[in-house]
């Protein structure tokens, strides 16, 4: 089993698909990585140690992945909240950030419904 950027890649998948298990690398980036590392498409279990090293070097040199990327995204969101811009306020309140409607739907961001009922007059 190959371990790249702290992630164990599944050995029975093709290399381009297996690289997408690394946070920050999608299908397009995985193909670019393989081109730069000059590694042909094959299963992860068929990779030689030299090919794994080449892939690791390309990722380390050209991409921000895993913990560093998560930290960078968290810092960006924190900055938005500190400067009180519209997107930052939406993050603070736990509402959708990208212009979605909130009158209906938006349950993923808002959480489960909190029913507000009225009491009967007695």
Question: Can you give a write-up of this model?
Answer:
With 122 residues, the chain is mostly helical. It folds into two domains: 64 residues, Helicase, Ruva Protein, domain 3, CATH 1.10.8; 27 residues, 30s ribosomal protein s13, domain 2. 48% of the residues lie in helices and 3% in strands. It is built from six helices and two strands. The radius of gyration is 22 Å and the shape is elongated.
Q: What's the quick description here?
A:
The chain is mainly alpha-helical.
Distance between the termini: 70 Å
Question: H/E element string?
Answer: EEHHHHHH
Q: How many E-type strands?
A: 2
Largest sheet: 2 strands, antiparallel
Write out the strand line-up for the largest beta sheet, numbering strands in chain order: 1-2
Globally, the shape reads: elongated
The CATH architecture of the largest domain can be named as Orthogonal Bundle
Write the CATH fold name of the largest domain: Helicase, Ruva Protein, domain 3
- Which radius of gyration do the C-alpha atoms yield? 22 Å
Poorly predicted regions are none
Question: How many individual domains?
Answer: 2
| pLDDT averaged residue by residue | 93
Q: How helix-rich are the residues, as a percent range?
A: 40-55%
Class from helix and strand fractions:
mainly alpha
The amount of beta strand, in percent, is: under 5%
Q: What is the C-level CATH assignment of the largest domain?
A: Mainly Alpha
- Continuous helix count: 6
């Amino acid at each position: 089993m190959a371990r790249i950027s702290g992630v164990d890649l599944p050995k029975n998948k093709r290399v381009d698909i297996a690289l997408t298990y690394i946070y920050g690398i999608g299908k397009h980036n995985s193909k670019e990585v393989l081109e730069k590392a000059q590694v042909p498409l094959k299963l992860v279990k068929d990779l030689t140690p030299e090919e794994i090293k080449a892939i690791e070097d390309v990722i380390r040199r050209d991409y921000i992945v895993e913990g560093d990327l998560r930290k960078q995204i968290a810092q960006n969101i924190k900055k938005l909240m500190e400067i009180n811009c519209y997107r930052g306020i939406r993050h603070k309140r736990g509402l959708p950030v990208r212009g979605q409607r909130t009158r209906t739907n938006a349950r993923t961001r808002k959480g489960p419904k909190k029913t507000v009922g009225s009491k009967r007059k007695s």
